[in-house]
Hints:
Helix content: 40-55%
CATH topology of the largest domain: Chloramphenicol Acetyltransferase
CATH superfamily of the largest domain: Choline/Carnitine o-acyltransferase, domain 2
Strand order of the largest sheet: 11-7-6-8-9-10-1-16
Shape: globular
Largest sheet: 8 strands, mixed
Distance between the termini: 75 Å
Strand content: 5-15%
Amino acid sequence: MAEARCAVSQPRIEPDDEEVKYPSRNTFRVWRRFLVKRFYRTRNLIYNGLWPTPIWNLGVLIFILLTLQLVQGSRTRWPSTILWQFADSINIPTDLPYGLSEILVSIFFGLIFFIALLYVRRYLLRLLLSYRGWMYETPRSQGLCTKLWGLTVRLVSGYSPLLYSCQQSLPRLPVPSLNETLTKLIDSLIPLYGENSNEIIALKKQAEEFAVSPGPKLQHILVLKSWWALNWVTDWWEKYIYLRGRSSLPINSNYYTMDHSFWKPTSRQISRAAVTLNQFMVFKQKLDHEEVRPLLIRNTIPSCMYQYERIYATTRIPGHEIDVLLHNNASKHVAVLRKGLIYRLHMFDMDDKLLSPASLEEQIQWIIEDADKHQDDHSYAEKCLPAFTCIDRQTWADIRKQYFSEGINKESLDIIENAVFFITLETIAVDTLIERGQYLMQGDGKSIWFDKSFNLIYFTNGRMGLNCEHSYADAPAVGHCQEFVMTNELIQPLYTKDGFAVKDPNFKQGKMKVPQRLIWDLPESINPHIDMALSFALKSKENIDLVVRMFDFYGKGFIKTAKVSPDAYVQSALQLTYYTYYKKLALTYESSMTRLYLLGRTETVRSLTSNLAEFVRSMHDETVSKEKKVSLLRKACNKHQGLYRDAMNGKGIDRHLFGLYVLSEALGYDCQFLKQTLTLPWTLSTSQQPQQQIATSPDCNLPEYDAKLGPGGGFGPVSDTGYGISYMIAGNKKIFFHVSSKRSAQITDSTRFMDILFQTLCDMRNLFE
């Protein structure tokens, strides 16, 4: 039946005709593309391999050595003597006509000196980047030592790096001290239980026993791994936290991001999709050519960029015990979902040119019309296939093996899993922040392919957003990509006054390939699995209570006048909000990046400290003066800022405890101490999202961009009885909050929490009046 349906309704694919008519032309084009790609790839490999030492240094060294020999005019004078003696010892010809031997010796020793210089600069830069004193000083109060260090880093770094040039010069993530980690762990739990509580007394005893055995042995093995591994924790983190996780991806792992907060560049769904698809592919090409510059903190200190390698064309393939990541960077098509039908859309024409926004408008219009025409030709199961990506990984792996391991089903699934990304052309409109967030987080149960690295969802009113898988990269990497697209929508004339994509009169698009509707051959026995998956997805969706709001009473501008860190200030407000609501403190997780180290990902900042607990309680004590409360707040914020910096510098405790636990399990130790500390529920799981990562982006504080700020995105709660909170401090006047919880908890209420949070922020400002 599937073959018959394909023959009747499948559009004719243009590439076949082209290849038959012009075989020689196609062969030439294929070879040309191959040679061009190979050239740029080889050039970038050489460029990155030599960084930070430019190739012209080799010419300078050869010139100096040659000049030295010719000017001296004798092989018996120092330092020429040493060069010629060494040349004789390794059988370099020295009896050639005058000048040729000197050139040969100069080239040989110039190359040796160049390689030595290369490695000296690289390891010197790695040593310099290991210095972290600059992070504990504000840019305006840097000491002379830090200023000299920064100048030295710039001199050693040399010329402008490509995307991955700095990777070999980044320092390795250090292993924290075992005793310091145990001490910090107990300190982080004292405000939760009380210093003299039974829980803390028992925990101290367990920590002392662990510090005797088997802690030191596990620590030594971890240090040994740090000597040979590029990063001693990242591979375990990706494997055990993400890929071995058997729970469903929506809510538990994936996250979402929104486009502009209130402004829309167009109300036309097709045009918005066409323009942004083109821009996302332009960014991919920049990544492929390494034209995106590495992120530099204070325009000096590079960050690790390895996560950018898998942003595009990556899919998390379900496995029975562990998932795997499929990455196909050669992919040139995307998968498009419309009314349950999935299409293969080629992003390049027959001449291997990226489709322009105007051409994509035509292709997307064709898909919409074809889906409207043929939606009744396909079964209920065929139109609900994305629901399988909503269920637990083991069940999805079993279904995938049973129904999608061969034949046309495997071919169609391969097209989806090898696509650059997945696109949903929705038939509904969402406008408010809450509506957009709720849909982007989970869709309708059958509209998002959660296994893909990221999904682009387009609504009928021109709104859009992303749903992203988490195992391959963290949110800032994808946020950088999205910021590129959103920024170009602001500063470039991509749309006409009527909302259509602008056509470039000088651009000539080659012959395009017609989109291909995917065909499936699904037996009736799959229907119960579809019903189960869809039911599970809808039940999970109904259980999530998500609220997204903008706080615009004040923002970063006022917080800085209070002389505290904006992030620490918001964290204090979150803890105070929870205490006001529940009359108790909450164990809080805040994510921090460790990308100052090679292959670094994240570390945990334990925001709940004794200083913060003292401030929170003082806010509910009318006998404490405003001045005292302000003093306690600043003390708590300074403590938090120190913890955040420590986490970025590899001095956190949670990844260390995780690494020790992985080793204890591998070596057969039953460490109840580690199990207990690592399974404590994070009542508040929080994350701050960066507002601007591209240096050339316009100033978001300008009035004309007030409605165009990105509100960021959100995620589900980690604890069944807790909250998932993300926030974006958007310029000087606004803060966007995303608060999620589970309705099944009964004790949580995202709306109530948000209401108290906004009142808390107002109360905290009143302290400074």
